Amino acid sequence: MNTKAAHILIVDDEEALVAAVRTELLKNGFKNIHVAYDGDEALDVLARFGKDIHVVSLGLMMPRVKGFEVMRSLAETHRQTIAVIMLTGFSTVENAATFKKLGTERVVSFDFISKPYDSEDLIKTISKAIEFVQAKRRQSNQS
Fold first, then answer.
1. What are the pLDDT digits (tens) for 55-100?
2. DSSP assignments along 22-76, one per residue
3. CA 115 to chain centre
4. Is 143 a member of any domain?
5. Is residue 142 part of a domain?
6. Which domain holds residue 117?
């Protein structure tokens, strides 16, 4: 599968950030972009499209269900390899360590990025995460 055809989920309660990331992805040729504005919506999207989603760009502090809770839920329920990129304004050593600990073999803690972020770096990181997930899925025939 082409990296540009991979499914990406952007989750954050900051609507402007979600719109900006989505716009950057579209400008860079990505086609299958899903959005959610809190962890609860993210879990709904993942329940419906989870097997198709390769990468989740996930905010940490959101209403209702926080980013770490989404990761815990994924670890319990998700059967396909998926990469999580935490994109947060709450960048602390403790949060980064918790993010890494929540990763599993299938729910991969791929990168922890502080806001404000560099758009070009974020696109490169998402592309690398897609390539990583595609390789892992090919290895275990999860495509």
1. 999 999 888 888 999 999 999 988 889 999 999 888 889 999 999 9
2. HHHHHHTT--EEEEESSHHHHHHHHHHHTTTEEEEEE-SS-SSS-HHHHHHHHHH
3. 15
4. no
5. no
6. 3-137
